[in-house]
Amino acid sequence: MTASEVRQVVIDIIADIAPDEDVTVIEDSKSLREQLDLDSMDFLDIVMELRKRHKVEVPQEDYPKLATLESCVSYLSPKMA
Amino acid sequence: MNYDCIVIGAGMSGLAAGIRLAMFDKKVVILEKHSIPGGLNSYYQRKNLDVGGVRHFDVGLHALTNFMKKGEKGKPFSKLLKQLRLSYDDFRLHPQTYSKIQFPDVSLKFSNDFALLESEVNSHFPKEMDNFLRLVETVRDFNELDLTLGYRSSRETLKQIIRDDLLTEMILCPLLIYGSAWEDDMDFAQFVIMFKSLYFEGFGRPEGGVRTIISLLMKKFEEAGGSIRFRTAVSEIKTNAKGEAIGVVASGEDLMAPIILSSIGYPETVKLTQKFPSQKVPRTGAMTFLESIFVYDQKIPLAVNDSTIVFYNNSRHYSYRPAANFFDSASAVICFPDNYETQKRIGEGTVRVTYMANYEQWKNLSRQDYELKKEVVGDSAFELVKKLAPDFQGKLVFKDIFSPLTIEKYTWHMNGTVYGSVDKTRDGTTPVPNLFIIGTDQGFLGIVGSILSGISMANLHGLMTGSEA
């Protein structure tokens, strides 16, 4: 997957988790938590959806690497190559 | 049959837990003894003999607490929406007008705007205003979701903050009757949950009542691939030689699963479990209620009564305990559900009156005396409505009264308890490994609380631990 495809994967998941959020205005370098109403329960869901849809495992100690859209892409890209 | 998880009970928490598990491809079955879902927040219908058709009634739901406006963030209700992938609009929520706590010499109004309650306290208890604001700060800063908290008396805590006993009684009244399993007091963590959900956030009602919520949850659960069996009673929770829960016997059939989530109440769950350590058996709560439902040929005009819920008490002290004599007419909750949708004033009007009751006394009545006693309750409630809406000219066209025995019959909660056991298990665990409690006895309250209980327990015990499977 290309970086932009990985980015889209994460955005699709967020759009499903938080249907009332506008995902088109997310800034890549800013913390997702700050821009959207996401808490630890939601990060669990992002991880669960990555596993369910793309068979990608994210161990608990790596959760901080999902902090921004940018960091998601750089962390997930090798796993989804 | 083998499952990844068995959920006992198709109430709010059971359905929510089921959705979470099915959503992440767990093979899950919900077992429900009744023929319909909902549990303590269910519904029923009665024939309309005057014009044909049926009238629909909610059980339980006076109000959906934790009201929020569309787009608000970080609220219990917004967490629920995200976790279950539901949209705000699905609930078709209508906010309350306002509600009031009505004591003999003073009434306090509150609404979905907390500023109203603040200004009411300021005008009726000016000397207590600073203390009230301190209480608000304490509540705001308290982490009620900490699963490790033990019991702490709310009255003791309030005594250190509020000087005027009358204000303490008035603050406690709605919080106790909308959620406390304890008599005359409640756990402070539960006080905080209730304070936030009633006073900070407020009340709403989904259009169509509780059925709107139940059908949303049912649809979601089925779409996620979960299965549900009605009229299916669990007669036993099976354990292995190590004392771990391994499955259930449901309508005579063995169903096996490594995780069992029970929403039927803690003592009720224990009763089904083969090897439960006897010294840890939770106590059954004593609080149970009677409700009278009146249907009038018209809605009460807003000019006569525009409040949504009245928490009525006829003395300066609020007594929250089983009634001394069948029912306690000293206090009541009067719900005017028509005042959620204030723009719709045509059609029949409904009023619901809830009294505290005494299970033992109702249980011991003969069939005939039971019916007669229900009439006495109905008459008392009818007079109370007249007192609150004296100028209402509507004609009564239907009434129904349900008692602690009705609650016991349809929910199978021992002694007709509504808020469950006084022994909660906040992290959901029991002395039996793999058996977890969700719903009221896990300790979150109200419909939103029950749903969040199902969600968080399913996350904690069904998804996070067993995730390698």
Describe this protein's structure.
The complex is a heterodimer of chains A (81) and B (469). Chain A contains four helices and no strands. Chain A has helices at residues 3-17, 32-35, 40-54, 69-79. Chain B is α/β, with parallel strands linked by helices and 469 residues long. Chain B folds into three domains: 5-38 and 208-284 and 422-463, FAD/NAD(P)-binding domain (3-Layer(bba) Sandwich); 115-199, no CATH class; 286-418, no CATH class. In chain B, the strands form five sheets. Chain B has a seven-stranded mixed β-sheet, with helices on both faces. The two termini of chain B are 18 Å apart.
Summarize the SSE layout with pairings.
The complex is a heterodimer of chains A (81) and B (469).
Chain A lengths: L2 H15 L14 H4 L4 H15 L14 H11 L2
Chain B lengths: L4 E4 L3 H12 L4 E4 L11 E5 L6 E5 L17 H9 L8 E3 L3 E4 L4 E4 L3 H11 L4 H13 L12 H6 L5 H13 L10 H14 L2 E3 L3 H14 L3 E3 L4 E6 L5 E6 L2 E4 L3 E3 L3 H7 L16 E8 L12 E5 L13 E9 L13 E9 L1 H5 L3 H22 L7 E7 L1 H8 L23 E3 L8 H19 L5
Parallel strand pairs in B: 1-2, 1-13, 2-9, 6-15, 13-19
Antiparallel strand pairs in B: 3-4, 5-8, 6-7, 10-11, 11-12, 14-17, 14-18, 15-16, 16-17
Helix pairs in contact in B: 1-8, 1-13, 2-13, 6-7
